[in-house]
Design brief:
This protein has helices spanning 43-56, 77-83; strands at 3-4, 7-9, 15-23, 26-33, 39-41, 63-67, 70-74, 91-97, 100-105. It is α+β, with helices and mostly antiparallel strands. It folds into 2 domains: 3-56, no CATH class; 63-105, Ribbon (Pemi-like Protein 1, Chain: D), CATH 2.10.260. The longest helix is centred in the middle third of the chain and has 14 residues, at 43-56. The model has no long low-confidence stretch (mean pLDDT 89).
Length: 106
């Protein structure tokens, strides 16, 4: 794969341009060929997608901690990295059933 001026040479011989890609619900950086539609994932986001798939395949636990008068849910670093989460980021919290919490990146 040849990268030149933020473009890469596609398998069809044309140049693919930078594009936002959406794979399995993740927004990822990459390139897309306007000629044949072939998509290429950036190396950094390729690692992120791989980590996401590994974590998605198993159940992980989060720990509830007390912070001042509130409770906080601690998320493992590998999970946070795979989702692109950072400290201070807002999440939407819903309670679909009495014993289930869903968090969604806002």
């Amino acid at each position: 794969m040849k990268i030149e001026n933020d473009r890469i040479r596609c398998v069809c011989g044309k140049w693919a341009k930078p594009a936002g890609l959406h794979i399995e619900g993740l927004s990822l950086a990459g390139w897309k060929c306007g000629e044949c539609g072939e998509e290429y994932l950036s190396p950094k986001d390729s690692i992120r997608l791989s980590a996401y798939k590994q974590i998605q395949a198993k159940t992980t636990q989060a720990v509830v901690a007390k912070v001042g008068n509130s409770l906080a849910i601690r998320i493992r670093k590998d999970v946070a990295d795979a989702l692109g989460l950072y400290a201070g980021e807002k999440l939407d919290l819903t309670l679909p059933t009495p014993n289930k919490i869903e968090l969604k990146v806002a």
